[in-house]
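Q: Got a minute? One more chain.
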Amino acid sequence: MSPVAGAPQHHILSVLVENKSGVLARVASLFARRGYNIFSLAVAPTEDERFSRITIVVDVESAPLEQIVKQLFKIISVVRISELDPRHAVERELLLATVRAESSQRSEVLELVRIFEGKILAVGAEALTVSLEGHPDKVDDFEEMLRPYGFVELQRTGRVALPKLEREAARLRSLRGRAS
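A: Always. Here it is, folded:
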């Protein structure tokens, strides 16, 4: 897939860090000191409570990747850094929004939520609170379609991403299981 002219280009970094206080602040501080633009940042503990995963989406123009990686590895609590190629990664983002929806427009907003496979979380007299989880492009499209109705409030989580599973390896495991 070739990049669209004028579209921002991003690196997705998955940074495994020790789950200790102050680590996120040190990572964010490094980006601020160097003037690197963070497009998106998400952090949460992993399956192993000793570690957290920070998913950082950075603008290619503002941040030479090799320099970022070198600087991140200087932070003692950084265990592993992986660059995730969007073509070989599973990406998701969550959007929560309270959208103006008077009775005359409510069915239109409900239809958009249905088409995008979102959820209605709360219903008020003149607004709806909706959520959508999906690929960031899908979330972008949903946000743009809702924009004309007007947002009371909008919050997005930022991207989270993991490498795609290798299909060949899964197929081989299943074949080995039958041979036993």
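A: The longest helix spans residues 167-179.
Q: Perfect, thanks.
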